[in-house]
Automatic annotation (TrEMBL):
The keyword Zinc does not apply. Pfam families: AA_permease. It is found in: Membrane. Keywords: Membrane, Transmembrane, Transmembrane helix. One of its GO terms (biological process) is transmembrane transport. It comes from Auritidibacter ignavus. This is APC family permease. One of its GO terms (cellular component) is membrane. The keyword Zinc-finger does not apply. InterPro entries: AA-permease/SLC12A_dom (IPR004841), APC_superfamily (IPR050367). Residues 45-436 form the Amino acid permease/ SLC12A domain. The chain crosses the membrane at residues 50-68, 131-149, 158-180, 195-214, 235-257, 288-313, 334-357, 377-398, 410-431, 443-461. It is a multi-pass membrane protein.
Length: 489
């Protein structure tokens, strides 16, 4: 039976600035600068990477129109679960919740492969010590696990410091790049033929990963000081900041390397390109950026850990998963959800550590397998969820117009659903490229299959719950509170 309580995960005390920092931490500015931008240049072979962030930013801002409006009225720690349940029905909501839970966990756990590799390399460079990637990953895991069971206030403070430092380093990189500019500053990256070309699918498929986590603001809607305004305001600020900042940084980086060289050098060095280039320009800054890259990854780990923990909490509270998962600490942090997420992470990391022993990929094993497989599958799942949520938003506003106009209730969500569906198809079509798999590899089907399969299992589980005691199953989570019947602000 689906039962509910009216508990909240923590007192309402998160402000707009703190929530913006939590959202941006999930997108990791320095990680995108070092990993996402060079990878996009290398794989697409095109200069139009800056345009990618502008186009995707506009698409997600359109999505945020309905999403933010709905967030003013529905407050629930299981954002996708709550929104899809309210708009399309409880079974569909449970399916989306299970899919979201799997996606957030895969995103978070996959990052341990990259942070283990990066921190192991950093330790070797700074001290000469050789420590395996999985040992460093487990150290990071312990830190995230400890922070995860503390109040969101502590996490927000830690993330705030890290995000501020990341922005500082990326801004310095941008300034240095424009100052060096071996071929001069040009606008070639913004030429239409550098974006609207056969490689556009790869550009968009890789670029969307830079925005993953922007929707997490709604997950904290029960913990913000002003739920009717904070989530919407923070989502818009974070999205616009991310889009403009990444577009400018991608352009500046291309200028710093040289438009005629950036694709080739990105293919040659990958994520190391930023740090190699920085070390050539300023060795001290190069070392500092390498250190901050690791802390940036820890910040992302914490952001997605908090999101997954709150999904466990919400699903436990509503009875979709065991109610023990709704247990919280004295500060209101989702204790059981946090511990469950940490337990899943340590099991998977240890499993990959065993599988990678003596593997032919050597030190790159955790990056090529654990990180690449899981995070790309997670991005695939989250884009699918965004598209479904857009449809749910339209359906909800049909019955709860709240005085909003046609643009907010129908047009913007419809455009977002269509655009996100296109990105979803592009990711699926380019999945072999994204995980660097050989043609015909079973991974091309297994990884997306895990994501979509989790949604199907969620749908079946929702039907089981409905049949078990139909009268007890509401049309939406009972703890999902609709607030305010008045015209929007």
């Amino acid at each position: 039976m689906v039962t509910t309580t009216h508990t909240t995960p923590a007192p309402r005390r998160i402000g707009t600035v703190s929530l913006v920092l939590v959202i941006i931490a999930a997108s990791a500015p320095l990680t995108v600068m070092a990993g996402g931008i060079p990878t996009n240049y290398a794989v697409s072979g095109m200069l139009g990477v800056p345009q990618t962030y502008i186009v995707l930013g506009l698409l997600l801002v359109v999505f945020a129109v309905g999403f933010a409006a709905m967030s003013r009225h529905l407050h629930n720690a299981g954002a996708f679960y709550a929104y899809v349940s309210a708009g399309l029905g409880l079974r569909q909501g449970i399916a989306s919740a299970i899919l979201a839970l799997v996606s957030y966990n895969m995103m978070q756990i996959g990052l341990y492969g990259l942070v283990g590799f990066a921190s192991s390399n950093l330790l070797r460079e700074l001290t000469g010590l050789e420590v395996s990637w999985w040992m460093m990953a487990l150290l990071c895991w312990a830190l995230v696990a400890i922070l995860g069971i503390n109040s969101i206030d502590l996490s927000a403070k830690v993330l705030g410091v890290v995000v501020a430092l990341e922005f500082l380093v990326v801004i310095i990189v941008d300034v240095l790049a424009l100052a060096v500019a071996p071929e001069g500053a040009t606008a070639d990256a913004f030429a239409p033929d550098q974006f609207f070309a056969p490689g556009i699918g790869v550009l968009l498929a890789f670029g969307i990963a830079a925005f993953m986590g922007f929707e997490s603001g709604a997950i904290y809607s029960e913990e913000v000081a002003d739920p009717r305004r904070t989530v919407a305001r923070a989502t818009y600020i974070a999205l616009i900041t991310i889009a403009i900042f990444y577009a400018f940084s991608a352009w500046a980086f291309g200028i710093g390397i040289g438009p005629s060289q950036v694709v080739e050098r990105s293919a040659e060095l990958g994520p190391d390109l930023v740090f190699v280039w920085l070390s050539e320009t300023s060795p001290v800054l190069g070392h500092f950026a390498s250190i901050l890259f690791v802390t940036s990854l820890i910040a992302v780990l914490l952001a997605f850990h908090n999101a997954a923990a709150r999904y466990f909490f919400s699903l436990g509270r509503s009875g979709v998963l065991p109610r023990q998962l709704s247990a919280t600490t004295g500060t209101g942090a989702p204790l059981a959800g946090s511990l469950t997420q940490s337990a899943l992470a340590v099991v998977v990391v240890i499993g990959f550590a065993i599988a990678g022993t003596g593997h032919e990929l050597g030190p790159l094993f955790p990056v090529i397998t654990l990180f690449t497989w899981l995070t790309n599958a997670a991005a695939f799942g989250l884009v699918f969820l965004l598209a479904v949520t857009s449809v749910a938003i339209m359906a909800w506003f049909i019955h709860h117009p709240h005085g909003y106009g046609l643009w907010v209730r129908v047009i913007a969500p419809a455009l977002a659903a269509l655009g996100l569906a296109v990105v979803f198809i592009l990711i699926l079509a380019n999945f072999d490229v994204m995980i660097d798999a050989e043609e015909g590899s079973s991974l091309i089907f297994i990884m997306p299959g895990i994501i979509l399969g989790s949604g199907v299992l969620g749908l079946l589980w929702g039907e089981v719950l409905r049949r078990r005691e139909p009268a007890a199953v509401p049309s939406a989570p009972a703890e999902l509170v609709t607030v305010g019947k008045e015209h929007h602000d």
